[in-house]
Amino acid sequence: MQFQAGSAKVDVTPPSTAPYLGGQPRHSLFLGVHDPLFVRATAITNGETVIVIAVDSLGINNSILGPGRDFTAEVRGRIQQQTGVPPTHVMIASSHTHSSPETADFRPFPDQDWLATFRDRIVQAAREAVESRRPVTVTVGTGEVLRGTLAINRNSHVYPGAPPEDPEVTVVRLQGDEWSTVLYHFTTHPVYVQVQPYVSADFPGVTSAMIELSEPHCQAALFLPGAAGNQAPPPDPLTHDGSRFDEENNPDFEVIRNLFAHNERMGMYLAQTALDIPGETELTGPVTAAQRTVQVASRSLPDRGPFEAELIDRRRALADAVDRGAPRTEIVQLTQLVQDTEEVLVAIDRGTDPIDAEVQVLRIGGLALAGLPGEPFVELGFELKSMSDDDRTVLPIGYANNYLGYLTHPEAWDTPVYEVSLGPWTRIGRFGGQQLTDTAKSMVDELWTTPNE
């Protein structure tokens, strides 16, 4: 049976009422849009149908719609109503661009109307992808960027030898009659233009746009993020010393302009690398999916009391500074201290109950996309990639179907790294990342031993 596939691309650029994560004070509003954000979706059928959705987003925590609601479940439910594709077969992967609305639930999101629009546009892209399916061939190929150019281990100081890094680029091409779609997989943080006040898809936006212009008949180029929890691009040697904001929290537009120029160069380099990778292997076999929700242990948390007292003191100091007309520099510094303590309290107030975490694997012939609900460290990604052989290619997909913060390998908790520090970005404890990875590995094997093989 021949594969069928369809794709769609829908604008999800936010309004000015959607706050973003970067900057100090944090959770500020955007000044404008540098480049639009999109949701891209591809539906792939061979017997069963799976839908791969790639969103220009920081990450989507499923609680952002409020108590008792689940963002991914609502998206999947609407997709099933409109297409018949079951929820287990729909993967929503965020690119993790930091110049997008703060949907990771570090704080309550103020613009619920936009979140509903955001949800519905994701559903729209999935529906249009299903409706546009046609016969295709599917190929996969791999290559690499030059080591040290786009991805380095940002925690290199804690490794006794060479730190693990992943320069591999994997490209999946779906090609029909005057029609094509590209899925490309790469492992690094999209943070070239983080902590600046303009909406941007960061390097995946540049890369996807260039592929869509350059690949013949390309309808959409979907960025699939790898295990990038501790992987980041190296700083631009021409601009890395420049601060995005001055001491009064005014943006430095020259620095920001230079950052966008560097982002353009790096995004185009990744695009050209992907375009040059041939389709080495044609995929054959079934399309199917597996989904499992497991409970993982939360991180341990300190007592709330001292931080609550600290917040009262810091808020009082900020109010006093405002009342006496203190310099703006001082008010910015005091505001930052207030927000730092507020974010610790956000983490503490989530509590230490076990966390429900979804693991999902999509099988597309000889390709397995193993979705994890957060930021897996590259060590965990390599465990999944090591399952690849002549019969299958296994790719870890981060930021999939939820955002639960960093998913570390256990040894990271014995080192002084940011990813295990106290904050809303670290919700899962020492062994949770390994538990979720092991679950994904067993699910991959199950999909290769079922009767429809």
Automatic annotation (TrEMBL):
Q: What is this protein called?
A: Neutral/alkaline non-lysosomal ceramidase, N-terminal
